[in-house]
Protein backbone atom coordinates (compact mmCIF):
# COMPACT_ATOMS: atom_id res chain seq x y z
CA UNK A 1 0.00 0.00 0.00
CA UNK A 2 1.49 3.35 -0.98
CA UNK A 3 0.93 6.72 0.57
CA UNK A 4 1.31 8.98 -2.43
CA UNK A 5 0.90 12.30 -0.52
CA UNK A 6 4.15 11.95 1.49
CA UNK A 7 5.96 9.65 -0.89
CA UNK A 8 6.29 6.94 1.74
CA UNK A 9 5.81 3.18 1.20
CA UNK A 10 3.40 2.09 3.92
CA UNK A 11 2.20 -1.50 4.41
CA UNK A 12 -0.54 -1.64 7.07
CA UNK A 13 -0.25 -5.41 7.40
CA UNK A 14 3.25 -4.97 8.94
CA UNK A 15 1.84 -3.06 11.90
CA UNK A 16 1.80 -5.46 14.90
CA UNK A 17 -1.67 -6.43 16.17
CA UNK A 18 -3.60 -4.65 13.45
CA UNK A 19 -5.48 -7.88 12.57
CA UNK A 20 -5.17 -9.95 15.77
CA UNK A 21 -6.51 -7.19 17.98
CA UNK A 22 -9.33 -6.34 15.58
CA UNK A 23 -12.46 -8.23 16.73
CA UNK A 24 -14.26 -8.20 13.40
CA UNK A 25 -11.25 -9.76 11.62
CA UNK A 26 -9.77 -11.85 14.37
CA UNK A 27 -12.59 -14.39 14.28
CA UNK A 28 -11.24 -15.73 11.03
CA UNK A 29 -8.15 -17.19 12.70
CA UNK A 30 -7.87 -20.52 14.52
CA UNK A 31 -7.34 -18.86 17.90
CA UNK A 32 -10.89 -17.58 17.71
CA UNK A 33 -12.38 -20.86 16.43
CA UNK A 34 -14.37 -21.80 19.53
CA UNK A 35 -15.63 -18.27 20.01
CA UNK A 36 -16.80 -18.06 16.37
CA UNK A 37 -18.76 -21.33 16.56
CA UNK A 38 -20.35 -20.50 19.90
CA UNK A 39 -21.68 -17.19 18.60
CA UNK A 40 -23.38 -18.83 15.61
CA UNK A 41 -27.04 -19.82 15.56
CA UNK A 42 -27.53 -23.61 15.92
CA UNK A 43 -29.10 -23.78 12.42
CA UNK A 44 -26.15 -21.93 10.93
CA UNK A 45 -23.55 -24.19 12.53
CA UNK A 46 -24.44 -26.88 9.96
CA UNK A 47 -23.40 -24.47 7.24
CA UNK A 48 -19.80 -24.65 8.40
CA UNK A 49 -19.51 -28.21 7.10
CA UNK A 50 -17.49 -28.56 3.94
CA UNK A 51 -19.90 -30.05 1.37
CA UNK A 52 -17.06 -31.97 -0.29
CA UNK A 53 -16.42 -34.05 2.83
CA UNK A 54 -18.62 -36.36 4.85
CA UNK A 55 -16.99 -35.88 8.27
CA UNK A 56 -18.88 -34.43 11.25
CA UNK A 57 -18.52 -30.90 12.51
CA UNK A 58 -16.10 -31.82 15.31
CA UNK A 59 -13.72 -33.64 12.96
CA UNK A 60 -14.03 -31.10 10.16
CA UNK A 61 -11.15 -28.86 9.21
CA UNK A 62 -11.85 -25.23 10.08
CA UNK A 63 -14.08 -23.56 7.49
CA UNK A 64 -15.31 -20.27 8.91
CA UNK A 65 -17.36 -18.75 6.12
CA UNK A 66 -21.07 -19.26 5.62
CA UNK A 67 -22.40 -21.15 2.60
CA UNK A 68 -26.00 -20.05 2.89
CA UNK A 69 -26.35 -18.70 -0.70
CA UNK A 70 -25.05 -22.01 -2.11
CA UNK A 71 -27.47 -24.16 -0.11
CA UNK A 72 -30.46 -21.93 -0.76
CA UNK A 73 -29.87 -21.90 -4.51
CA UNK A 74 -29.42 -25.68 -4.60
CA UNK A 75 -32.67 -26.18 -2.71
CA UNK A 76 -34.53 -23.91 -5.11
CA UNK A 77 -33.19 -25.86 -8.09
CA UNK A 78 -34.28 -29.16 -6.56
CA UNK A 79 -37.79 -27.89 -5.78
CA UNK A 80 -38.12 -26.36 -9.22
CA UNK A 81 -36.95 -29.59 -10.83
CA UNK A 82 -39.47 -31.64 -8.82
CA UNK A 83 -42.28 -29.26 -9.81
CA UNK A 84 -41.23 -29.43 -13.45
CA UNK A 85 -41.17 -33.24 -13.37
CA UNK A 86 -44.63 -33.36 -11.80
CA UNK A 87 -45.93 -30.96 -14.43
CA UNK A 88 -44.43 -33.04 -17.25
CA UNK A 89 -45.89 -36.21 -15.72
CA UNK A 90 -49.32 -34.57 -15.51
CA UNK A 91 -49.06 -33.40 -19.12
CA UNK A 92 -48.11 -36.92 -20.21
CA UNK A 93 -51.13 -38.32 -18.39
CA UNK A 94 -53.41 -35.77 -20.06
CA UNK A 95 -52.13 -36.67 -23.55
CA UNK A 96 -51.74 -40.39 -22.95
CA UNK A 97 -54.34 -42.37 -24.96
CA UNK A 98 -54.99 -44.73 -22.06
CA UNK A 99 -55.57 -41.85 -19.65
CA UNK A 100 -57.87 -40.12 -22.11
CA UNK A 101 -59.84 -43.33 -22.64
CA UNK A 102 -60.11 -43.82 -18.88
CA UNK A 103 -61.37 -40.25 -18.43
CA UNK A 104 -63.97 -40.67 -21.17
CA UNK A 105 -65.19 -44.00 -19.79
CA UNK A 106 -65.38 -42.57 -16.27
CA UNK A 107 -67.42 -39.63 -17.57
CA UNK A 108 -69.93 -41.93 -19.26
CA UNK A 109 -70.13 -44.16 -16.19
CA UNK A 110 -71.08 -41.12 -14.15
CA UNK A 111 -73.64 -40.02 -16.73
CA UNK A 112 -75.53 -43.34 -16.88
CA UNK A 113 -75.47 -43.83 -13.10
CA UNK A 114 -79.06 -43.26 -11.92
CA UNK A 115 -77.85 -42.41 -8.40
CA UNK A 116 -76.05 -39.36 -9.74
CA UNK A 117 -78.69 -36.61 -9.87
CA UNK A 118 -76.41 -34.11 -11.61
CA UNK A 119 -75.00 -36.64 -14.06
CA UNK A 120 -75.76 -34.59 -17.18
CA UNK A 121 -73.94 -31.54 -15.86
CA UNK A 122 -70.60 -33.34 -16.14
CA UNK A 123 -70.96 -33.39 -19.93
CA UNK A 124 -69.47 -30.13 -21.20
CA UNK A 125 -69.74 -29.13 -24.84
CA UNK A 126 -67.18 -26.79 -26.45
CA UNK A 127 -70.05 -24.43 -27.21
CA UNK A 128 -71.31 -22.88 -24.01
CA UNK A 129 -74.95 -22.68 -25.07
CA UNK A 130 -75.24 -26.41 -25.84
CA UNK A 131 -76.18 -28.56 -22.83
CA UNK A 132 -77.00 -32.25 -22.46
CA UNK A 133 -80.67 -33.03 -21.82
CA UNK A 134 -80.73 -36.84 -22.03
CA UNK A 135 -78.36 -39.83 -22.02
CA UNK A 136 -78.71 -43.23 -23.69
CA UNK A 137 -76.91 -46.52 -23.20
CA UNK A 138 -74.81 -47.08 -26.33
CA UNK A 139 -74.73 -50.61 -27.81
CA UNK A 140 -73.79 -52.16 -31.15
CA UNK A 141 -76.70 -53.53 -33.14
CA UNK A 142 -75.20 -57.00 -33.59
CA UNK A 143 -78.41 -58.33 -35.13
CA UNK A 144 -77.58 -56.43 -38.34
CA UNK A 145 -73.80 -56.89 -38.37
CA UNK A 146 -74.14 -59.50 -41.11
CA UNK A 147 -75.25 -56.73 -43.49
CA UNK A 148 -73.28 -53.97 -45.20
CA UNK A 149 -74.47 -50.37 -44.89
CA UNK A 150 -73.63 -47.37 -47.05
CA UNK A 151 -74.56 -43.73 -46.83
CA UNK A 152 -76.07 -42.15 -49.95
CA UNK A 153 -75.65 -38.60 -51.14
CA UNK A 154 -77.35 -37.11 -54.18
CA UNK A 155 -74.92 -34.61 -55.68
CA UNK A 156 -75.83 -31.56 -57.75
CA UNK A 157 -78.70 -31.93 -60.17
CA UNK A 158 -79.33 -35.49 -58.92
CA UNK A 159 -80.87 -34.11 -55.72
CA UNK A 160 -84.40 -35.41 -55.24
CA UNK A 161 -85.68 -32.04 -54.08
CA UNK A 162 -84.41 -30.33 -57.26
CA UNK A 163 -85.72 -32.95 -59.68
CA UNK A 164 -89.36 -31.89 -60.13
CA UNK A 165 -90.48 -34.79 -62.35
CA UNK A 166 -89.03 -37.27 -59.90
CA UNK A 167 -90.49 -35.28 -57.04
CA UNK A 168 -93.96 -35.54 -58.50
CA UNK A 169 -93.56 -39.21 -59.37
CA UNK A 170 -92.55 -40.24 -55.86
CA UNK A 171 -94.64 -37.67 -54.04
CA UNK A 172 -91.50 -36.31 -52.45
CA UNK A 173 -91.95 -33.37 -50.10
CA UNK A 174 -90.83 -29.88 -51.08
CA UNK A 175 -87.67 -28.14 -49.96
CA UNK A 176 -89.58 -26.16 -47.32
CA UNK A 177 -90.53 -29.40 -45.54
CA UNK A 178 -87.48 -31.57 -46.14
CA UNK A 179 -87.48 -32.97 -42.59
CA UNK A 180 -90.20 -35.51 -43.36
CA UNK A 181 -89.71 -38.31 -45.88
CA UNK A 182 -92.54 -40.33 -47.39
CA UNK A 183 -92.82 -44.10 -47.57
CA UNK A 184 -91.80 -44.30 -51.26
CA UNK A 185 -88.33 -43.01 -50.42
CA UNK A 186 -87.99 -45.02 -47.20
CA UNK A 187 -88.79 -48.30 -49.00
CA UNK A 188 -86.88 -47.54 -52.21
CA UNK A 189 -84.34 -49.92 -53.77
CA UNK A 190 -80.96 -49.13 -55.31
CA UNK A 191 -79.80 -51.85 -57.69
CA UNK A 192 -76.19 -51.77 -59.03
CA UNK A 193 -75.89 -52.45 -62.76
CA UNK A 194 -72.65 -53.30 -64.58
CA UNK A 195 -72.25 -53.88 -68.32
CA UNK A 196 -68.45 -53.76 -68.28
CA UNK A 197 -65.78 -52.30 -65.97
CA UNK A 198 -66.20 -48.92 -67.66
CA UNK A 199 -70.03 -48.81 -67.62
CA UNK A 200 -71.49 -49.04 -64.12
CA UNK A 201 -74.44 -47.28 -62.57
CA UNK A 202 -77.13 -47.58 -59.92
CA UNK A 203 -80.83 -47.82 -60.71
CA UNK A 204 -83.46 -46.42 -58.38
CA UNK A 205 -86.67 -48.44 -57.90
CA UNK A 206 -89.60 -47.34 -55.79
CA UNK A 207 -93.25 -48.07 -55.03
CA UNK A 208 -95.07 -45.22 -56.71
CA UNK A 209 -98.45 -45.90 -55.11
CA UNK A 210 -98.52 -44.04 -51.79
CA UNK A 211 -100.94 -46.34 -49.98
CA UNK A 212 -99.06 -49.49 -51.07
CA UNK A 213 -95.75 -47.96 -50.06
CA UNK A 214 -97.05 -46.99 -46.61
CA UNK A 215 -98.59 -50.41 -45.88
CA UNK A 216 -95.46 -52.16 -47.13
CA UNK A 217 -93.29 -49.96 -44.90
CA UNK A 218 -95.33 -50.94 -41.84
CA UNK A 219 -95.17 -54.62 -42.79
CA UNK A 220 -91.44 -54.40 -43.41
CA UNK A 221 -90.77 -52.86 -39.98
CA UNK A 222 -93.12 -55.23 -38.15
CA UNK A 223 -91.59 -57.91 -35.95
CA UNK A 224 -94.62 -60.19 -35.63
CA UNK A 225 -96.02 -62.04 -38.63
CA UNK A 226 -99.56 -61.27 -37.53
CA UNK A 227 -98.99 -57.55 -38.15
CA UNK A 228 -97.81 -58.03 -41.72
CA UNK A 229 -100.58 -56.77 -44.00
CA UNK A 230 -98.89 -56.37 -47.36
CA UNK A 231 -96.43 -59.14 -48.24
CA UNK A 232 -96.23 -58.46 -51.99
CA UNK A 233 -95.32 -55.20 -53.68
CA UNK A 234 -94.10 -54.14 -57.13
CA UNK A 235 -91.22 -51.71 -57.57
CA UNK A 236 -91.05 -49.50 -60.68
CA UNK A 237 -87.86 -48.31 -62.33
CA UNK A 238 -87.45 -44.60 -61.63
CA UNK A 239 -84.03 -43.33 -62.65
CA UNK A 240 -80.35 -44.22 -63.19
CA UNK A 241 -77.40 -42.56 -61.45
CA UNK A 242 -73.66 -42.55 -61.93
CA UNK A 243 -71.92 -43.64 -58.76
CA UNK A 244 -68.71 -42.81 -56.94
CA UNK A 245 -67.81 -44.87 -53.89
CA UNK A 246 -65.67 -43.45 -51.07
CA UNK A 247 -64.76 -46.17 -48.59
CA UNK A 248 -63.67 -45.62 -45.01
CA UNK A 249 -60.26 -46.83 -43.89
CA UNK A 250 -61.49 -47.99 -40.47
CA UNK A 251 -64.53 -50.09 -39.61
CA UNK A 252 -66.08 -47.70 -37.07
CA UNK A 253 -65.03 -44.46 -38.71
CA UNK A 254 -68.68 -43.72 -39.48
CA UNK A 255 -71.86 -45.28 -38.14
CA UNK A 256 -75.62 -44.80 -38.00
CA UNK A 257 -77.51 -44.63 -34.69
CA UNK A 258 -81.09 -45.58 -33.89
CA UNK A 259 -82.62 -44.44 -30.58
CA UNK A 260 -85.10 -46.28 -28.38
CA UNK A 261 -86.65 -43.77 -25.98
CA UNK A 262 -88.56 -46.45 -24.08
CA UNK A 263 -85.48 -48.35 -22.88
CA UNK A 264 -83.09 -45.35 -23.13
CA UNK A 265 -80.84 -47.33 -25.44
CA UNK A 266 -79.09 -46.36 -28.65
CA UNK A 267 -77.89 -48.93 -31.19
CA UNK A 268 -75.30 -48.26 -33.87
CA UNK A 269 -74.26 -49.99 -37.09
CA UNK A 270 -70.98 -49.30 -38.95
CA UNK A 271 -71.06 -47.48 -42.29
CA UNK A 272 -68.44 -48.91 -44.64
CA UNK A 273 -68.46 -45.97 -47.04
CA UNK A 274 -70.39 -43.29 -48.89
CA UNK A 275 -71.99 -43.50 -52.35
CA UNK A 276 -72.20 -40.22 -54.21
CA UNK A 277 -74.90 -40.38 -56.89
CA UNK A 278 -74.82 -38.03 -59.86
CA UNK A 279 -77.10 -37.57 -62.82
CA UNK A 280 -76.29 -40.23 -65.41
CA UNK A 281 -75.41 -39.15 -68.92
CA UNK A 282 -75.71 -41.99 -71.42
CA UNK A 283 -73.72 -42.10 -74.61
CA UNK A 284 -76.16 -42.20 -77.56
CA UNK A 285 -74.67 -45.46 -78.78
CA UNK A 286 -75.41 -47.20 -75.44
CA UNK A 287 -79.02 -46.14 -74.97
CA UNK A 288 -80.46 -49.37 -76.36
CA UNK A 289 -78.07 -51.50 -74.29
CA UNK A 290 -78.92 -49.61 -71.10
CA UNK A 291 -82.65 -50.00 -71.73
CA UNK A 292 -82.26 -53.74 -72.29
CA UNK A 293 -80.18 -54.12 -69.13
CA UNK A 294 -82.53 -52.29 -66.77
CA UNK A 295 -85.54 -54.03 -65.27
CA UNK A 296 -88.82 -52.20 -65.73
CA UNK A 297 -90.34 -53.73 -62.58
CA UNK A 298 -89.18 -55.75 -59.56
CA UNK A 299 -91.58 -57.88 -57.52
CA UNK A 300 -90.79 -57.96 -53.80
CA UNK A 301 -92.14 -60.63 -51.45
CA UNK A 302 -91.74 -60.67 -47.67
CA UNK A 303 -90.98 -64.05 -46.07
CA UNK A 304 -89.02 -65.53 -43.20
CA UNK A 305 -85.41 -66.51 -43.98
CA UNK A 306 -84.63 -70.15 -44.63
CA UNK A 307 -82.46 -72.28 -42.33
CA UNK A 308 -79.48 -71.97 -44.66
CA UNK A 309 -79.86 -68.20 -44.92
CA UNK A 310 -80.09 -67.91 -41.14
CA UNK A 311 -76.93 -69.98 -40.66
CA UNK A 312 -75.01 -67.74 -43.09
CA UNK A 313 -76.18 -64.61 -41.27
CA UNK A 314 -75.28 -66.07 -37.87
CA UNK A 315 -71.77 -67.00 -38.99
CA UNK A 316 -71.16 -63.44 -40.12
CA UNK A 317 -72.50 -61.98 -36.89
CA UNK A 318 -70.28 -64.24 -34.79
CA UNK A 319 -67.26 -62.36 -36.11
CA UNK A 320 -68.34 -59.36 -34.05
CA UNK A 321 -70.51 -60.99 -31.39
CA UNK A 322 -69.12 -64.42 -30.31
CA UNK A 323 -72.44 -66.05 -29.43
CA UNK A 324 -73.72 -69.45 -30.48
CA UNK A 325 -76.89 -68.28 -32.23
CA UNK A 326 -77.94 -71.80 -33.23
CA UNK A 327 -78.29 -72.89 -29.59
CA UNK A 328 -80.31 -69.78 -28.81
CA UNK A 329 -82.74 -70.45 -31.65
CA UNK A 330 -83.17 -74.08 -30.59
CA UNK A 331 -84.08 -73.00 -27.08
Automatic annotation (TrEMBL):
Q: Which UniProt keywords apply?
A: Nucleus
- Superkingdom as given in the UniProt entry: Eukaryota
Question: Which portions of the sequence form the region Disordered?
Answer: 306-331
Q: Coiled-coil annotation: which residues? A: none
Q: Name one GO biological process term.
A: transcription elongation by RNA polymerase II
Q: Which GO terms describe its cellular component?
A: Cdc73/Paf1 complex
Q: Where is the composition biased (Basic and acidic residues)?
A: 311-320
Compartments reported by the entry:
Nucleus
Q: Which GO molecular function terms does the record list? A: chromatin binding; RNA polymerase II complex binding
Give the InterPro entries listed for this entry.
RNA_pol_II-assoc_Paf1
Q: Which family does it belong to?
A: Belongs to the PAF1 family.
Q: Protein name, please? A: Paf1p complex component
Originating species = Komagataella phaffii (strain ATCC 76273 / CBS 7435 / CECT 11047 / NRRL Y-11430 / Wegner 21-1)
Q: What is the lineage of its organism?
A: Eukaryota, Fungi, Dikarya, Ascomycota, Saccharomycotina
Amino acid sequence: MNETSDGLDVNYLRIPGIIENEKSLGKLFSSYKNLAIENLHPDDRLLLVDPNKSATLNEESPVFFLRRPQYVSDGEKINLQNFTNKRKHQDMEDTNPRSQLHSVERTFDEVIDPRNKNRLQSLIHPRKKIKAVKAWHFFPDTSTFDQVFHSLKFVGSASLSKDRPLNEQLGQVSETDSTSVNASILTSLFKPIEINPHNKWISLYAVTDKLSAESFRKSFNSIKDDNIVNRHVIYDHIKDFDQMFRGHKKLFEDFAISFDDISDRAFFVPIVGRLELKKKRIVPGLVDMVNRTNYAHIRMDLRNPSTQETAIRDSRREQYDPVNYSSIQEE
